[in-house]
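REVIEWER CHECKLIST
Item 1: Sequence provided? yes
Item 2: Single chain? yes
Item 3: Sequence as submitted:
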Amino acid sequence: MNRISIRFNLILILPILFLFSLRVSAEEKPTMLFFYSVNCEHCQSIKKHFLPDFLKKYGQHFRFVELEVSDPANFDSLAAMESRVNVPEDKKDYPAVYFAGNMIEGEIPLGTRLESLVKTYIANPDSMKELDRAVMQKTPAKIQPGKGVQAKPVHLAYFYKTGCKKCSRANEIITWLEKTYSGSRIDRFDIADKKSKLISAALGDSLNVPHNRLLSTPMFFIGRNYVLAEDISREKLAALVSEYAKTGAEPFWRNLSQEELDRSSQIIEKKFNSFSFFAITMAGLFDGINPCAFATILFFVSYLTMLGRKRNEILLVGLSFAFAVFLTYFLVGLGFFKIVKSISNIELLSKIIFGGTAVFCVIFGFMSIYDYWKARQGKTSEMILQLPMFLKKRIHATIREKARMNSVVAGALAAGFLVSILEFACTGQVYLPTITFMVGMGGMNASAVLYLLLYNIFFIVPLLVVFGVVYFGVSSNVIARFMESRVGAVKLALAVVFFTVGILLFWAVFM
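Item 4: Structure as written out by the authors:
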């Protein structure tokens, strides 16, 4: 009877114990919090390309919770977790994951570190749970709206740039600010827009923003205060809004005078010029004397001499040829500038264009150093950065054909146009990165056009010098020997140009 009773009790108890064990195991599963923004391209990439396989492989070890941060409650949760883990303001990013006492933020860190973190938990769950408990016991910093009713609205001007990593985070902060502080009013300005540039420079100048930070993004203006990228936080902006809540803050940027806008235009031009003049002029000059272009010049002069053209004719042909080259390159550059300018407003494409161009500049710099080494050995035929033989032959054929035209001016113009197009495979290695640099520096259209003109003027200077020297009686053979002895120096100078443009491009776009 006792045995029957014991068995009966076990039958009743075992299911209860089993259900209890399931409940305990479920409760013991840690929670992984995934914070993301619907406006964040990196978040969408992680959700589409990383999370499906990751959750399929490891999802049974934790509960996965998605929190979209445009909801103020979710943004508060993210801020609370960051506060507990002590994430520095400049390290905050989207998407973000909290798991077992650890915070990982940003697309690349998530893609490279999250799996390793989960593996560490699986291998040693107890220590990770202990860390999680210790983190969760910390009291996060709380931000509450200031006491009292706001007498007047508090206006803020927010300047951002499409493709700017920090701007994505700042945008979520101001969304939270608008929903948390009913009196806040935020005007948003895309710094790529010409008028936005003028307003930003005018505000920065009137509030004594350091000149090297003018037009930087993200940036806020409120009352007589400005907040730069490294200082942007919920705490900082909330404190300023609470401070101005007593008196209000007017949107004075809406009433800037024409005089103030004109002054800001001058400030922008000065800022652009200070960074661009040396890099652009040197790039144009060394592009004009690179071996690809110079070999073409010498062949043209030699062929004209062989045809028995007189010195005056050679000079006239040279001027016509140089003008055609100048005009062709300027128009090509103007078109490329507009294309890159439009692409720069698309986050992913802008990063590919700017970052990729900077990388190629560095690669071309090392190639130029290799070519310098080959030139020093007398092996110029083994240099990497030179026109392929089929293009050289096509250029020579074009020159022969056009140089025989009855109208020397028409022939020179036609040759200049066609040779410029064919030669672009070589000279474009410097020209296109330089144009990309202009866009990255944020130059306005007028200044960009002036610098395109300046670049191309310096580009044809070597052409004009060669034709001028020939006009005064120096033979093309003498010029050729002079240049052959300096090919290495030119290649070394080109390496410096490539590295300079690459570094400046990185600095202008990503810093």
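Item 5: Key structural point noted by reviewer: DSSP finds 17 helices and eight strands in the chain.
Item 6: Recommendation: ____
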